[in-house]
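Anyone up for a design puzzle?
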């Protein structure tokens, strides 16, 4: 075994964090943890991981569940395409592979939501196959260790990093080695001020030698995120016997926040008032007339490629029959029933504000 792997594995054996998915070799659990970890910090992932497993303890339970249940259980974890892909992939594993995870990289990569990194993680961590992986943590460690100065996200650099990662994996030890490399990036070779004095591979690290730890990996200049102003309506219909109901609609299955429920609304156009926007969007998307009342709350939220300010208004249904043009379903529900549906984070803040009124 090369000194790099030997030192790293010895360090990992002593220093690894006790994380729930490190107690198992069940590919289903490892897969779930990897998908959750894709966009979320370890500490934030743990409660979602546990909640998801309590509801869907194995791949059949997930495959047989309605998508609405899956999205509701995922609620709050964000990046909902991950949940939709998990569900689709679970169906394939349950049906095509009779519940047994495939082991080949090619087959793993054919599953929805499984890219090069996740396939490498599953093959190595679940099955100890001699496969490399490169995620953000590994890229940072390798750029520094080998003194790679090119933009870490560029395609050519990524290829170089995958090649280094493959060369480093010691045969028969990929499970521990890959986790060790990621752990080093997460706890020692951290983005700012890495703790080089505690690093098991400091001896041959180019960045440490040249004092480039805080310069590498090189980054592309970041563009400012576009910002959108959105206005939405919580539309009430007054019932005589059963009390008030509010209108919610379910987004189309594909695309951003696909399959989640929301209060109808849309993007405010140039020179348009927020109130006018709500009434126009509701007319265009639902075919009904409403009266727009007072503002309930303004919510700020950032997605990966843009940020929004969402202004929510209390509205009253006036006339018309709902005819959807850009959602798959709608429902009139009692305010206390809103809890049963999966909403995106910004809409959940509106619901919380309604509760506090
Ligand atoms: S010596 Fe420092 S920069 Fe180099 S790999 Fe270790 S922590 Fe990272």
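Challenge accepted. My sequence:
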């Amino acid at each position: 075994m090369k000194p790099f792997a030997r030192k790293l594995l010895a360090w990992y054996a002593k220093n690894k964090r006790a994380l729930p998915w490190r107690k198992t070799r069940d590919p289903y659990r490892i897969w779930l943890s990897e998908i959750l970890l894709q966009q979320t910090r370890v500490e934030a992932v743990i409660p979602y991981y546990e909640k998801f497993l309590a509801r869907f303890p194995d791949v059949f339970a997930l495959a047989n569940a309605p998508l609405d249940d899956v999205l509701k259980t995922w609620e709050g974890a964000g990046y909902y395409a991950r949940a939709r892909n998990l569900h689709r992939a679970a169906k394939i594993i349950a049906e095509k592979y009779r519940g047994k995870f495939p082991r080949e990289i090619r087959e793993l990569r054919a599953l929805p939501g499984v890219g090069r990194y996740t396939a490498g993680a599953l093959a190595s961590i679940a099955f100890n196959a001699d496969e490399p992986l490169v995620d953000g943590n590994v890229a940072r460690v390798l750029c520094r260790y080998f003194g790679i100065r090119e933009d870490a996200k560029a395609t050519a650099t990524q290829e170089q990093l995958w090649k280094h990662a493959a060369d480093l994996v010691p045969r028969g030890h990929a499970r521990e080695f890959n986790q060790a490399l990621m752990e080093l990036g997460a706890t020692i070779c951290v983005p700012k001020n890495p703790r080089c004095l505690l690093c098991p591979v400091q001896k041959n690290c180019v960045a440490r030698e040249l004092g480039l730890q805080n310069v590498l990996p090189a980054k592309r200049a970041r563009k400012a995120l576009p910002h959108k102003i959105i206005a939405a309506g919580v539309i009430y219909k007054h019932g005589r016997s059963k009390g008030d109901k509010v209108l919610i609609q379910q987004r189309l299955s594909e695309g951003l926040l696909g399959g989640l429920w929301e209060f109808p609304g849309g993007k405010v156009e140039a020179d348009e008032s927020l109130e006018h926007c709500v009434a126009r969007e509701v007319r265009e998307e639902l075919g009904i007339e409403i009266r727009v009342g007072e503002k309930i709350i303004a919510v700020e939220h950032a997605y990966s490629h843009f940020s929004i300010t969402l202004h929510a208004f209390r509205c009253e249904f006036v006339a018309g029959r709902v005819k959807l043009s850009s959602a798959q379903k709608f429902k009139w529900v009692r305010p206390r029933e809103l809890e049963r549906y999966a909403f995106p984070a910004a809409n959940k803040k509106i619901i919380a504000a309604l509760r506090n009124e």
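A detail worth pointing out: The chain has a mean pLDDT of 94.
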